[in-house]
Amino acid sequence: MKRLALALLALCLGCSAPPPPGVLAPGPPTQVSVTADPLQHRGYTLLPVATFEVTARVLGVEGYHGQRRGRLAPYDVALGWGPMSDTAVLNRLDIAQHDRLYRWARRADAPETPTIIRHSTNIHVVPASAGLGGQIAGLRPGEVVTLRGKLVDALAPDGSLWRTSRSRTDAGMGACEILWLEAVGVAE
C-alpha cells in the first residue's frame, strides 16, 4: 500500500493544480514605441518598433519548426488577460491554434467577440537565445507567464516583410505580434 501511495505521489509531482478561479492576469500588455538599431537573426533583419511586456494566461503553445517563418519564430503563444484569463470565461470557449493563427469558438454566455479580441492575442516568438526557446516550449495552457522584449517587423533574406501587429483591437491575418523575446517568467 505504501509503494502505491509513493508511486501516485511521484506521478502527481509532475501534475499541475488547476488554475484558481477568477481573473489571473488583470492588466493589458504594455507597449512603448521605440527607435532602435536593427537586429540580425537567422538571416533576417529585425526592425524593433516597440518595447513590449505582457503578463497573461497561456491559452496555447504551438511549434512551427518546419515552416519558412518557423526558422525565425519557432513558437506561437496564445495569451489572455483580463476576462480572457478567467477559467469561468475560458470554459465557454473552444480555443485552437494552427496555421500561425489563434482561433476561438464561442459557446453560450461567452464574451462578445470584441472583448475576446481586446483581451487576447497570438504571439510569434523569436527567442533571443536557445534557453528562452526552451522555456517557451515548456509552457502549458493555464500557466500565468510574463513575456518581455521588443515587437519587431522582420525583413526576410528575399526582401519580403513580415509585420508585427501594433494594436490590441485587430483580428485575423496580420493581427499577431512578432516578439523578439528577451525574458520569460512563469508565476508560481
SSE pattern, N- to C-terminal = HEEEEHEEHEHEEE
Q: How many β-strand stretches?
A: 10
- Percentage of residues assigned to helices: 10-25%
> Main sheet, how many strands, which sense, barrel?
5 strands, mixed, barrel
CA radius of gyration is 18 Å
For the biggest β-sheet, the strand order reads: 3-4-7-10-8
Layout of strands and helices, then pairs:
Layout: H1 2-13, E1 30-33, E2 39-41, E3 44-63, E4 75-80, H2 87-90, E5 93-98, E6 101-106, H3 113-118, E7 120-127, H4 130-137, E8 144-155, E9 161-162, E10 177-186
Parallel strand pairs: 7-10
Antiparallel strand pairs: 1-3, 2-3, 3-4, 3-8, 4-7, 5-6, 8-9, 8-10
Descriptive overview:
Helix content is 16%, strand content 41%. With 188 residues, the protein is α+β, with helices and mostly antiparallel strands. A 5-stranded mixed beta barrel has the order 3-4-7-10-8. Strands 5-6 form a two-stranded antiparallel sheet. Strand 2 and strand 3 form a beta hairpin. The longest helix has 12 residues, at 2-13. The model is unreliable at 1-14 (pLDDT under 50).
